[in-house]
Structure formats: C-alpha cells, structure tokens
Amino acid sequence: MTSSPSAAETTSPDTRFFGQPLALAHLFGVEMWERFSFYGMQGILLIYLYFSVSEGGLGVPAAIAGGIVGAYGGAVYLSTILGAWLADRLFGSERVLFGSAIVIVAGHLSLALLPGLIGVGVGLILIALGSGGLKANATSVVGTLYSAEDTRRDAGFSLFYLGINLGAFFGPILTGLLQSTAGFHWGFGLAAVGMVAGLIQYSFGRKKLPESAHTVHNPLPRNRYPLVVIIAIAAVALIIVLMLIGFVRADNLSTIVIVSALGATIAYFAVILSSRHIEAQERSRVWAFVPLFITSVAFWSLYQQQFTVLTVYSDKRLDRHIFGWEMPVSWVQSINPIFIIVLSGVFAVIWSRLGKRQPSTPVKFALGAIVMGGAFLLFLLFADGGPGSTPLLAIVGILFVFTVAELLISPIGLSAATKLAPARFQTQMVALFFLSVALGTAISGWLVQFYDPSNELPYFSMLGAIAIVVGLGLLLFVRPVLALMRGVR
C-alpha cells in the first residue's frame, strides 16, 4: 500500500503568496479579522470595567478590573487545550477552526447587546472558548503547509503574524473611536461586525486548504463518546456551583486561571512524555520544549501588561494630546501592531536570507526575553511622574522595543511548536505553547495589584531584571537544548 504525499510535500513548491503557499492567504485573512475583533474589544474592555457609570462604564475598581482582563486573556489561551483536543481526537483542525469562529461571533454580539456584567460574563466566556479553538488550530493548519526541512517556515509564520497585527492595529483604532463618540456598546458591536467579516471570508477559502488540515491525528474510540459528554456536563456544573458558593469571584479570577494553567501544563507535558505512541526522538524534542516554555512564560508576563498596567498608565499618566486633541486610551494598543506590520516583513526577509545560518530557536527565545526585560527598564526613565508626565513618543519608543522582543519569541514559538511536535500531538503541542501565553497573561493580570503609580521603581526594575536573568539562563544552556532538539533548529 502506497501512501499519498503529505500536504507539505505537495505544497512546498507553491510560492504564489509572497513566496509562500497560496493556502496561507486564507489563514492570513481569517486570523486578521479575528484579531481585529479580539483586540478591538480588548482595547476598550478594561476602561469599560473601571470607568464610572457616569462615563458609560461599570465602576469596577481598577485592580479588580485588571485581574478580570488578565484572567480573560489567560482563559483564551487556556482554552486552546480544548480546541486542540477536539481537533486531534474528534473533528480535525479545520472544522474546529470554523466552528470556533461562529462561537466568537456569538460572544461579541453578547457584549454588544446584553447589558452590564451579564453581557461581560456571557460575552467573555464565549470569546475565550472560541478564540482558544481558533488560535491553536489556525496555527496548526499553517504548519501543515510546510515540511520540517522547509526553510521558509519561520518566514511564513512571520507573514502569518503580519495578518494578526493588521487586525490588531485597526481593531483598537476603530472601536476606540466609536467608544469615545457613540459609547462602549457601539465599539463592541463593531468588533462583532469584524468577526462576521472574517467568518464570511474564511467560508469561501476553507475548501482550498490541504487535506491534512482535516486530519484527525488520534481519533477517539466511539465507545468513549458518552464518557466525554458526561465529563463535559460535570465540568460545566462544577463551574456553576463554584460561582454560586462564591469560590470563583471577580477578585480572584486571575489566580484561578494561573493555577489552572499551571496544572494543565504539568498534566499536558506528562501525558505527551509518557505516551507509548511517541518515539525516543520525539520525546527528546518535547523535553527541549520545556526551557522554551519557561522563557515564554516570563516574556508574556511582561508583554501582556499592555492590556493591564499599560492601559491604566496610558489613562492616568500618558500625555495623549496631539495638537490640542486627546486621542482615545485604546489607540495606544495600536502602536505595537504598527511596528509589527513594519518589522515582521523585515524579520521574514532576514530569516529567509540567512536560511540555515540564522540563529537557532533557543537563541531567539533568549534574546527575546532579554530585550523584553530591557523594555521594562526603560519605564524607569519616567517613573513616579504626575498626570500627563510621560510623553507619547516615550511610549512609542518603549513599544518599539516590545515589538522586537515579540518577533523573537511569538512567531518563532509557533513555528517551534509545530517542528518539535510528535506526530500524534500536532495540534496539542501548539496548545502547549499557548499555555505559556495563558500563564503569562494571567500573571500579567495578577501583577496589577502590585503596581503603585506613586512608587514605580521596584515594580519595573524587578520585573525587567527577572526577564533578563531568564534570557541569560537560556543562553547558557543553548547547546544542551539543541542536543535535545535532535537536528531541529
């Protein structure tokens, strides 16, 4: 019996989309619209929670509001586990991706149409579940377009990352403009419109994806379907009970997500490493992913503070006046995507030109953590100032450094997850990378309670130093990590 060629083998000569396979364009598009809705909503979410009722908000204390946003962001990436499991065991990545997009639309409509905390609760739960399912599976499908030896892979992921950030740029700009002129629910409604556009666009292109995008890598035996249904019902019931008895509250959400993500991480690594269905070489590569995972957590703990501490900082400390006009707070979150749009192409060209001479994945990760730590130390130049004391150009410069660090870790991490993944755990390995983002994002929300605008030196200096130490530690162990990667760089 002869096997059919893999998707990577049949598509690797295809260079119709800026030197990449044409199928990348369809994934580029759906991820761009999903990020438009995601960041458009998140750009105004924190201020919606802590602005006073007279300003159209809900009047939640800023520290608790930050914790909610961090917990929500962590839950998005935590739910990639569910999306990956559904893909690998039941439906395949492409089908889960399409279904997740529909759930996201429902979530944004809930935020736009339902009042107060009811809309926040229903909307954020649906968006977290849908975004988690879409993120892990879109990335996994991108991985099917390349063979492990294709040197275009990192460049392709960088181009895919450009699509993410086109959406991330326009989302906060437009939703922030609507929020400041018409109200918060109009901003949330625009995010829903963006996701509907993404769903329509993807529905036309999904049939052109490789057959391997529909593969169920490790099918669940049908006799275990009833058990899965029982577990799902029990999990939902448990969450409802914990909320009713007051165990799950707004002020401890970030802690709960941190503990959940940490437990899921340990369990996931244990399941994959102990599996009888992976070979010795595959197991070694999974071990190599552990130090990359730890470095990624340190990076995202700082980076994701764009949506927590930096939002509060921009509202209270940043001079946002431009020729007498005050720009919306959410627009600050569009600065980073501008640099991504510019620099992702530059990084893609650099990695393509260098080919096999480019720095290895562990080196890129280490440099990313060090640069991110340096970005936090830059805040010390403006520490403990008064209202409007930080120039807008200063934040622009700091976010430029954020972007350089991001491009050394985020697209590279997605690529590394697909390269190091055992055959039976393709999508779930991507979910493992997103678990590092979940941990880091939840930690970023938890850290808000320690941010004191009147005494910023300890906060920024300690967090910056920790990230730099983590990066230097990985640099010292590059050779052992590469040995565990067994030929993958």
TrEMBL record:
<feature type="transmembrane region" description="Helical">
    <location>
        <begin position="286"/>
        <end position="303"/>
    </location>
</feature>
<keyword id="KW-0472">Membrane</keyword>
<keyword id="KW-0813">Transport</keyword>
<dbReference type="GO" id="GO:0005886">
    <property type="term" value="C:plasma membrane"/>
</dbReference>
<dbReference type="Pfam" id="PF00854">
    <property type="entry name" value="PTR2"/>
</dbReference>
<feature type="transmembrane region" description="Helical">
    <location>
        <begin position="36"/>
        <end position="53"/>
    </location>
</feature>
<comment type="similarity">
    <text>Belongs to the major facilitator superfamily. Proton-dependent oligopeptide transporter (POT/PTR) (TC 2.A.17) family.</text>
</comment>
<dbReference type="InterPro" id="IPR000109">
    <property type="entry name" value="POT_fam"/>
</dbReference>
<dbReference type="InterPro" id="IPR020846">
    <property type="entry name" value="MFS_dom"/>
</dbReference>
<feature type="transmembrane region" description="Helical">
    <location>
        <begin position="331"/>
        <end position="351"/>
    </location>
</feature>
<feature type="domain" description="Major facilitator superfamily (MFS) profile">
    <location>
        <begin position="1"/>
        <end position="482"/>
    </location>
</feature>
<dbReference type="InterPro" id="IPR036259">
    <property type="entry name" value="MFS_trans_sf"/>
</dbReference>
<dbReference type="GO" id="GO:1904680">
    <property type="term" value="F:peptide transmembrane transporter activity"/>
</dbReference>
<dbReference type="InterPro" id="IPR018456">
    <property type="entry name" value="PTR2_symporter_CS"/>
</dbReference>
<dbReference type="InterPro" id="IPR005279">
    <property type="entry name" value="Dipep/tripep_permease"/>
</dbReference>
<feature type="transmembrane region" description="Helical">
    <location>
        <begin position="59"/>
        <end position="84"/>
    </location>
</feature>
<feature type="transmembrane region" description="Helical">
    <location>
        <begin position="158"/>
        <end position="178"/>
    </location>
</feature>
<feature type="transmembrane region" description="Helical">
    <location>
        <begin position="225"/>
        <end position="247"/>
    </location>
</feature>
<keyword id="KW-0812">Transmembrane</keyword>
<keyword id="KW-1003">Cell membrane</keyword>
<protein>
    <submittedName>
        <fullName>Di-/tripeptide transporter</fullName>
    </submittedName>
</protein>
<keyword id="KW-1133">Transmembrane helix</keyword>
<feature type="transmembrane region" description="Helical">
    <location>
        <begin position="253"/>
        <end position="274"/>
    </location>
</feature>
<feature type="transmembrane region" description="Helical">
    <location>
        <begin position="389"/>
        <end position="409"/>
    </location>
</feature>
<feature type="transmembrane region" description="Helical">
    <location>
        <begin position="96"/>
        <end position="118"/>
    </location>
</feature>
<feature type="transmembrane region" description="Helical">
    <location>
        <begin position="184"/>
        <end position="204"/>
    </location>
</feature>
<dbReference type="GO" id="GO:0006857">
    <property type="term" value="P:oligopeptide transport"/>
</dbReference>
<feature type="transmembrane region" description="Helical">
    <location>
        <begin position="430"/>
        <end position="451"/>
    </location>
</feature>
<feature type="transmembrane region" description="Helical">
    <location>
        <begin position="363"/>
        <end position="383"/>
    </location>
</feature>
<feature type="transmembrane region" description="Helical">
    <location>
        <begin position="457"/>
        <end position="478"/>
    </location>
</feature>
<dbReference type="InterPro" id="IPR050171">
    <property type="entry name" value="MFS_Transporters"/>
</dbReference>
